[in-house]
UniProtKB/TrEMBL annotation, chain A:
Key words, A-Z: Cell membrane, Membrane, Peptide transport, Protein transport, Transmembrane, Transmembrane helix, Transport
Subcellular location: Cell membrane
Gene3D superfamilies: MetI-like (1.10.3720.10)
Biological processes per GO annotation: peptide transport; protein transport; transmembrane transport
Domain ABC transmembrane type-1: 127-335
One of the record's GO cellular component terms: plasma membrane
Membrane found in the keyword field: yes
Membrane topology recorded in Swiss-Prot or TrEMBL: Multi-pass membrane protein
Classification via InterPro entries: BP-dependent_transpt_permease, MetI-like, MetI-like_sf, OppC_N
This protein's name: ABC transporter permease
A Pfam family this chain is assigned to: OppC_N
Chief subcellular location: membrane
Family: Belongs to the binding-protein-dependent transport system permease family. OppBC subfamily.
From TrEMBL, chain C:
Protein name, as recorded: ABC transporter ATP-binding protein
Principal cellular location given in the protein's record: membrane
ABC transporter domain boundaries: 8-256
Matches recorded under PANTHER family: DIPEPTIDE TRANSPORT ATP-BINDING PROTEIN DPPD, OLIGOPEPTIDE TRANSPORT ATP-BINDING PROTEIN APPD
Length: 348, 305, 332
């Protein structure tokens, strides 16, 4: 390599060759801040615009589904006389008279259905049902799946073997087929049960809804159980857990510090992604007429009811269809964002 | 290898038996037999009918008779469509659903795999983002929405395609596209992420270092590895198209097994429900076994135990 | 064109990450004659692999050459089209990677993967390529070559796989073989075998080798010349004797102090180099080693040292050496 001729043109000061102090040396080392797992995750989540927009949409939909109906002038089962099949923002003849008389009539933003029920409130209630199904089902799946999975992983041996065989069998059972069957078969026994004292709440929630939950609880937890088990097994055998144990860390500390921080990211992500999948299934069942009971609407049953009038009243189909697609899309994208933010294995 | 296949088949038999048992007992939970709705029938006639179909015998006996008959492929007579056996109905209706589902599966693979590869290969570009958006929407929009949307646009508004039945080739377009939408999107995403994973592998660097062209390294070295996750998805995809056809057949009024199943449930046609469930479950389980075995054949790393 | 087989002049290479430009290589110059063995030593992230990969056009996304020239065997690498480059890769220059476990495609047989490169770069037909592949396996000391050709990578041990990688690399008798930490992932006993094999093959085939390693023991026994890299720069360059018996740069001295020696006195301790390497996203203005250097001076923090040459080969980039030389010259 050639000498750099410039080097000798530099004006060198004798002082330059004095030893540098420690402080001066340290001033050079620019370290990136080390941040905690959660802080780092939330920082990345906030930077993810798509996920933040989805979170915002979900919050808006939740406000409309859970809070707005309480203040809404119409109720989802109220049949307004003479207001059948109104187009969006249209008023019935009677309502026109009222307006002419100076009364204030709350507009039908989405029109009304063939029984004269305000469609906006029905879509809101439908969203409420769909969201409830999604969230409760995801919670049920989370609890059953993680308990089953961690028992299998910690017990090991033949207990694990038998438990995982059960999971294998349930996993290969075609789920939708059984869901259809179960939700059909459970309807009647639940109705009977609802008559018994102390079980009156069943008819409040609706037999179909409960049977949907039972179906999820029976079938859909296996994926979660497998995931939790494999995570725990992997962590149990990982070298840093062995290292922590060798350093004398207690089991409680290992579970808190290593197992939880490593699992929770994955658990949050899987649960979030479970919500849209449950909503998806519920809408499918409702569409086939196996979902919530009338007059309670769900987005799936609203769409199903609207099919026959598709030619004349297409908006009756498109509104619930759009809302359900929006909800599922938002949860999916939020779940993807959470995975990017909280799955440490995908860091950087 | 042989041992693995045997184990897999044994597990499949257990699963099928479990499905049959669950189905049988679930059906017996439902009060009000199939003849209750036909109010005109006198109690004596109901009794006679029940005796004819063996509904008056104790449950345990009925269970064993049913299982042993089912094992021989005899699901009994349909309770609603008098004079036809369940197997008969399945034999006439299933080919319709199978043809539809098969076309959807092929469409999903032929579209999803190449587009996923393209998206991964062009990662970070406009094409990648566009495909991502389409695929994400395809996963988020439920089947019935896609069906009705297609029906409204192409059937009702534009009147390009027939809205019901399967009379000619054109009438297949909408149901097949609607049925394939979800699996196509799913495969696209799966293929993209698996391809990205593979492209970052050391052996891809080796391929480049050997002087192979991008085409060869992509199609020879990357694709074979990247396609493995898609193979595992074929099982669930078949299940999806089979059950997805419930909705598609309902909307497009197609005389398939899915529609028949829904009809049977609403009509409480016990034997028909049980027969269809066991039949469809068996098909899905058998497909899963085949897919599993194919997977192990394609990936030499997996030792068959 | 350069008279050397490999002639890298003032190479600069950066990775353009979302977080900013990472200057992976800063003014790196290397040359190598036919049949010579050059060792590149340095810790992880010092840029030794990046240097070698850029020579083969294997720079990973989002890395980009931003300055300097690279000549290899009469080709100006900077100007080559992808198509021209492909004719060189695996043919005139080939590479062995660090991890033989992941460097072979798991779904193709060994035979397929060796024959592929032969079929690509020579006129041999399939039968001849198979015969050549068998010959290569024998050459790298694999027994039962006929049987191995039909096996999959996962059926072989790590040492065997690395031998297969060497066979692939040597298939077209390259002029230059790059070995990127070829023994790091292997057991110690296997390491020695693989190194021995490489030296043996070098004698037989007469190719030049660039040996990338962080193991000073490996370079000492194999290399003619050694480049010591730190934070994307070559801080010291010389013959093996220069580096081992007459190290000039503080970093080289530190490296040598940190390896165990047989002739060490009892109770003599190994001296680690304190501190961690700098963040290449925010490189300091001065010498990158300054924060860890025990002889750091004020100027080191401000400016990178110029090159100080000791003889035809041996040079460093260090203000200490520069200062001593200036003092010597002043005394004359």
């Amino acid at each position: 390599m050639e000498k750099n001729p410039l080097s000798f043109q530099l004006k060198l000061n004798p002082d330059d060759f004095l030893p540098a102090t420690e402080e001066e040396k340290e001033g050079l080392v620019v370290m990136r801040d080390s941040v905690s797992f959660w802080k780092d995750g939330f920082r990345r989540l906030r930077k993810n615009k798509v996920a933040m927009v989805c979170l915002f949409i979900i919050i808006i939909v939740m406000i409309f589904a859970f809070i707005v109906p309480a203040f809404y002038p119409y109720s989802y089962e109220q049949q307004i006389q003479g207001a059948n099949n109104l187009a969006p923002m249209q008023y019935s003849a009677k309502e026109m008279e009222q307006i002419a008389a100076g009364e204030k009539v709350f507009p039908h933003f989405f029109g009304t259905d063939k029984m004269g029920r305000d469609y906006a409130i029905r879509v809101m209630m439908g969203s409420r049902i769909s969201l409830l199904v999604g969230i409760i089902a995801a919670a049920i799946i989370l609890v059953i799946g993680s308990v089953f999975g961690s028992i299998a992983a910690f017990a090991g041996g033949w207990v694990d073997l038998i438990m995982m065989r059960i999971v294998d069998i349930i996993y290969t059972i075609p789920d939708v087929l059984l869901i259809v069957l179960l939700s059909f078969a459970l309807k009647a026994p639940l109705k009977v049960l609802a008559q018994a004292p102390g079980f009156g709440w069943i008819s409040v929630v609706g037999e179909n809804l409960i049977s949907i939950f039972i179906v999820f609880a029976l079938l859909y937890w296996v994926g979660m159980a497998r995931m939790v088990r494999s995570q725990i097994l992997m962590l149990k055998e990982s070298e840093y857990v062995t290292a922590a144990r060798a350093l004398g860390a207690s089991s409680a500390r290992i579970i808190k510090k290593h197992l939880l921080t490593n699992c929770i990211g994955t658990l949050i992500v899987t649960t979030t992604l479970q919500i849209p999948s449950s909503i998806f299934t519920e809408s499918f069942l409702s569409f086939l007429g196996l979902g919530v009971a009338v007059p309670m609407p769900s987005l799936g049953s609203l769409a199903s009811d609207a099919i026959n009038g598709l030619n004349t009243y297409p908006y009756l189909l498109f509104i619930p269809a759009a809302v359900i697609s929006l909800i599922i899309l938002s949860f999916n994208l939020l779940g993807d964002g959470l995975r990017d933010a909280f799955d440490p294995k995908l860091k950087n | 290898m042989g041992k693995y296949i045997l184990k897999r088949i044994a597990l499949a038999f257990v699963t099928i038996w479990a499905v049959a048992t669950i189905t049988f007992f679930l059906m017996n939970l439902v009060p009000g037999g199939p003849f209750l709705s036909e109010k005109a029938i006198s109690p004596a006639a109901t009794k006679a009918l029940e005796a004819k179909y063996g509904l008056d015998k104790p449950m345990a006996e009925r269970y064993f008779t049913y299982i042993s008959d089912a094992a021989h492929g005899d699901f009994g007579d349909s309770l609603k469509q008098r004079g036809r056996t369940v197997m008969d109905i399945i034999a006439t209706k299933f080919p319709v659903s199978a043809k539809l589902g098969g076309m959807a599966v092929i469409l999903a693979l032929c579209v999803g795999v190449p587009l996923g590869v393209l998206a991964a290969y062009k990662r970070g570009t406009f094409i990648d983002s566009l495909f991502s958006v389409i695929a994400t929407c395809g996963i988020a929009v439920p089947g019935f929405v896609i069906c009705t949307l297609l029906l409204y646009v192409f059937g009702v508004k534009l009147q390009w395609l027939p809205t019901l039945g399967l009379k000619n080739a054109q009438s297949y377009i909408m149901p097949v596209v609607a049925l394939a939408a979800y699996p196509t999107s799913y495969i696209m995403r799966l293929m993209r992420s698996s391809m990205l994973d593979v492209l970052g592998q050391d052996y891809m660097r080796t391929a480049k270092a050997k002087g192979l062209s991008q085409k060869v390294s992509l199609f020879k070295h990357a694709l074979r590895n990247a396609i493995l996750p898609v193979i595992t998805y074929v099982g669930p995809m078949l299940a999806y198209t089979l059950t997805g056809s419930f909705v598609t057949e309902k909307i497009f009024t197609i005389p398939g097994l899915g529609g028949e199943f829904i009809k049977a449930i609403n009509g409480r046609d016990y034997t028909m429900i049980m027969g269809t469930t066991i039949f469809l479950a068996t098909i899905m389980i058998v497909m899963n076994v085949i897919v599993d075995i194919v997977y192990k054949l394609v990936d030499p790393r997996i030792k068959l135990k | 064109m350069s008279e050397y087989l490999v002639d890298i002049q003032h190479e600069r290479l950066s990775f353009f990450t979302p977080a900013g430009e990472v200057k992976a290589l800063n003014d790196v110059s290397i040359h190598l004659n036919d049949g010579e063995v050059l060792g590149i030593v340095g810790e992880s992230g010092s840029g030794k692999s990046v240097t070698a990969y850029s020579l083969m056009g294997l720079t990973a996304y989002p890395g980009k050459l931003v300055g300097g020239t690279i000549d290899f065997n009469g080709h100006r690498i900077n100007d080559l089209s992808e198509k021209e480059f492909r004719k060189i890769r695996g043919n005139e220059v080939s590479i062995i990677f660090q991890d033989p476990m992941t460097s072979l495609n798991p779904v193709y047989t060994i035979g397929n993967q060796i024959m592929e490169v032969i079929l690509l770069h020579t006129d041999k037909n399939k039968e001849q390529a198979r015969a050549r592949a068998k010959e290569l396996l024998e050459l790298v000391g694999i027994n039962e070559p006929e049987k191995r050709l039909k096996q999959y990578p996962h059926e072989l041990s790590g040492g065997m796989r690395q031998r297969v990688m060497i066979a692939i690399a040597l298939a077209c008798e390259p002029k230059l073989l790059i070995a990127d930490e070829p023994t790091t992932a292997l057991d110690v006993t296997i390491q020695a075998q693989i190194l021995e094999l490489m030296m043996e093959l070098k004698e037989k085939l007469g190719m030049a080798i660039i040996m990338i390693t962080h193991d000073l023991g490996v370079v000492a026994s194999m290399c003619d010349r050694i480049a010591v890299m730190y934070a994307g720069r070559i801080v010291e360059y010389g013959t093996t004797d220069d580096i081992f018996y007459n190290p000039k740069h503080e970093y080289t001295k530190g490296l040598l102090k940190s390896i165990p020696r047989l002739d060490a006195k009892e109770h003599e301790r190994l001296v680690p180099i304190e501190g961690t390497p700098i963040d290449l996203l925010n490189p300091p203005a001065g010498c990158p080693f300054a924060p860890r250097c025990s002889n750091c001076m004020k100027i080191c923090l401000r400016e990178m040292a110029p090159v100080t040459t000791f003889d035809d080969v041996h040079y460093t980039q260090c203000w200490m050496n520069q200062k001593e030389q200036m003092e010597r010259e002043a005394a004359k």
